[in-house]
């Protein structure tokens, strides 16, 4: 139901084939995610440690879900001298293409312990239905 796009993944694969290298060496994504279906909804969890909830922006345009987040540097005094800084800072963005069977109007978002969880309901038209079979030539009726 979800389509993950990473334009650099295919480039990494082609480069590995061309150079004859094996193993994985793709760049780490600053916003990894998990996605799964739980009953009548899809759940997408984004890892966003150290991000202020006010710095998270979620947009849906057509069937493209875009999550943007900004990780800002911690408060610094004039006497702070950085020795090492490996945690990425700045604005990060991730897009997920939603299937037509999902209802983007019903998305619910929750941010807890550095994890942004989005719950996207399955559209009513995509839910399983039972078809009753009538006897004696009567028409079939769909039961929701």
- Tell me, rounded to a whole number, the average pLDDT: 80
Indicate the structural class. Answer: mainly beta
Strand content: 35-45%
Strand sequence of the main sheet, in spatial order? Answer: 1-6-5-4
SSE string, helices as H and strands as E? EHEEEEEEEEE
Count the DSSP helices.
1
What is the name of the CATH architecture?
Answer: Sandwich
The fold-level CATH name is Immunoglobulin-like
Which CATH class applies here?
Mainly Beta
Report on the biggest sheet. Answer: 4 strands, antiparallel
Radius of gyration: 22 Å
Uncertain regions spanning at least 5 consecutive residues? 22-27
Shape: elongated
How many separate domains? 1
Helix content: under 10%
- Give the termini distance in whole angstroms: 22 Å
How many strands? Answer: 10
Describe the structure in your own words.
With 144 residues, the chain is mostly beta strands. The chain has one domain: Immunoglobulin-like, CATH 2.60.40.790. It contains 1 helix and 10 strands. The strands form 3 sheets. A 4-stranded antiparallel β-sheet has the order 1-6-5-4, with no helix packed on it. A 4-stranded antiparallel β-sheet has the order 2-3-8-7, with no helix packed on it. About 4% of the residues have low confidence.
């Amino acid at each position: 139901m979800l389509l993950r796009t990473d334009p650099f993944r295919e480039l990494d694969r082609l480069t590995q084939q061309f150079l004859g290298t094996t193993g994985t060496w793709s760049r780490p994504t600053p916003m990894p995610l998990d996605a799964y279906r739980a009953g009548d909804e899809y759940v997408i969890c984004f890892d966003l440690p150290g991000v202020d909830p006010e710095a998270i922006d979620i947009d849906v345009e057509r069937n493209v879900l875009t999550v943007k987040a900004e990780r800002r540097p911690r408060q610094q005094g004039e006497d702070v001298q950085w020795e090492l800084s490996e945690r990425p800072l700045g604005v990060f963005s991730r897009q997920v293409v939603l299937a037509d069977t999902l209802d983007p109007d019903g998305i619910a978002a929750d941010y807890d312990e550095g994890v942004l969880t989005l719950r996207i309901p399955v559209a009513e038209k995509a839910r399983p239905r039972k078809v009753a079979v009538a006897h004696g030539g009567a028409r079939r009726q769909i039961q929701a």
